[in-house]
Specification:
Blueprint: E1 7-12, E2 17-23, E3 29-34, E4 40-45, E5 50-54, E6 74-76, E7 83-88, E8 94-99, E9 103-108, E10 113-119, E11 125-132, E12 139-145, E13 149-154, E14 168-171, E15 178-183, E16 187-192, E17 197-201, H1 204-230, H2 234-243, H3 247-256, H4 259-265, H5 271-285, H6 291-305, H7 307-310, H8 315-351, H9 354-364, H10 413-429
Antiparallel strand pairs: 1-2, 3-4, 4-5, 5-6, 7-8, 8-9, 9-10, 11-12, 12-13, 13-14, 15-16, 16-17
């Protein structure tokens, strides 16, 4: 036995007296256990240490001496806080410990070193034990914490022993401390600060059979989904995608189908299946690249079932879809307004281009043009001067500063055609 008096005692059951005592730790002793062969004691204390005490034969115990200790103890150090519980592995030279530092440690008994640490509890670990399932010969570690949570850690054949990905958590004692665990023929029992004893039955075999059945059904349904996609049976494909919880596959199906096909796909649907599709639509509607397909599907569902029935039991879902839809409408309106500026800029560039000015002058003077006839020509604004930006002068009448009598002269038609021809050849060379 161990006590708050820091001593370790061995008692005679028949005499009711201690056979020996020793000052074992510097603080309270929380746990004392022995291995299967009763050749080794292990003690855990609030001083953060674990001590291993090799034992001599029982017949050498004496109430006058301390010769039950065969040799000096082995000290296991590694926990950052007090150690609450210990357990020996039934078939290996291993010891596990539970501590207030929220960890469980594996110790190699012969070498006296820590070989693995389990870090999964969110509060102090108060109790721990090894559990062997008689149904499937599987072993596990069961641990209980100060938050009332039990954890099941499956054991593997590897040196690290535990597969963390398969850890199961059980809320057994309403967030109160779990003080003790024990095994039964088909499970475990736990006791806690809530004053209850909770019994857990080992249902591993049933769970494995159910998991295998679900996996087989999923494989079968995936094959049916591929067959439906290959044959373009959109109704069957979309139903399988919903059952398999594949939102991206469902999006691709609706993307391939036209608006009329969507109406046909949901023609024989119950409203429960339509409400499942609404959850996919909410997810698609958050992405601008998928919003169009989302609204096509949403419009088809509302047309068939009506808004009131469709969102009768999920007002929050309606609000979520509505919020993102309003964002898409604002974005589309903003893009539409931006096109006005683009149209104005393109029109202004066309009216102020040299090509536009040249043709305008030629048309005003009834001269042939070498430019395309489908060029958009407007005469809303007069040219500010008779010269183009590239040096081409319009063929309008001009005054001569050297003419004393103020008379004006215009070039003849052949001269104008000659100049146009020269300009054309110069442009071709350029």
């Amino acid at each position: 036995s161990g006590s708050r008096d820091k001593s370790l005692k061995i008692w005679s059951v028949n005499q009711g007296k201690p056979l020996g005592s020793i000052a074992a730790h510097d603080k309270d002793i929380n746990c004392v256990i022995s291995n299967e062969k009763s050749t080794l004691l292990a003690t855990a204390s609030q001083d953060k240490n674990i001590k291993l005490w090799p034992l001599s034969e029982i017949n050498t115990f004496s109430n006058k001496s301390l010769n039950f200790i065969q040799q000096e103890e082995i000290i296991l150090r590694g926990h950052r806080r007090g150690v609450w519980q210990l357990a020996f592995h039934p078939h290996r030279a291993l010891l596990i410990s539970a501590s207030s530092d929220k960890t469980i440690k594996f110790w190699h008994v012969k070498r006296g070193i820590c070989i693995s640490t389990l870090d999964g509890h969110e509060s102090a670990v108060l109790t721990v034990l090894f559990f062997s399932s008689e149904q499937n010969n599987q072993q596990a570690i069961i641990s209980g914490g100060a938050d009332g949570i039990l954890k099941v850690w499956p054991l593997a054949d590897t040196p690290t022993l535990v597969t963390n990905k398969d850890v199961v958590s059980l809320n057994a004692h309403n967030e109160t401390r779990v003080w003790a665990l024990c095994t039964t023929n088909d499970g475990i029992c736990s006791t806690g600060a809530d004053g209850r004893i909770v019994r857990f039955r080992d249902a591993t075999q049933e769970y494995l059979l159910q998991a295998k059945k679900v996996k087989d059904e999923e494989i079968q349904q995936e094959q049916e989904l591929r067959d439906a996609l290959r044959s373009k049976d959109w109704q069957k494909a979309l139903t399988d995608a919903l059952d398999l919880d594949r939102p991206y596959t469902a999006f691709q199906i609706l993307q391939r189908a036209s608006t009329h096909s969507i109406d046909q796909v949901i023609q024989n649907w119950p409203i429960t299946k339509a409400q499942r599709l609404l959850k996919f639509i909410r997810e698609w509607n958050t992405d601008a690249t998928k919003a169009f397909v989302a609204h096509l599907a949403l419009a088809a569902l509302i047309h068939k079932f009506g808004h009131a029935d469709l969102f009768a039991n999920d007002y929050a879902l309606s609000q979520a879809i509505d919020a993102y839809t309003r964002r898409h409408i604002k974005r589309i309106e903003s893009l539409h307004r931006a096109t006005y500026l683009i149209d104005h800029a393109l029109g202004s560039m066309q009216r102020t281009s040299p090509l536009h000015k040249k043709k305008k002058v030629l048309l005003e003077n009834n001269l042939p043009t070498e430019y395309p006839d489908d060029l958009d020509i407007t005469f809303e604004h007069d040219l500010e001067d008779n010269a183009d930006d590239d040096g081409f002068h319009s063929f309008q009448s001009s005054s001569s500063d050297d003419d004393d009598d103020g008379s004006s002269s215009s070039p003849s038609a052949p001269q104008q055609e000659e100049k146009v021809e020269k300009r054309k050849k110069k442009k071709q060379r350029t």
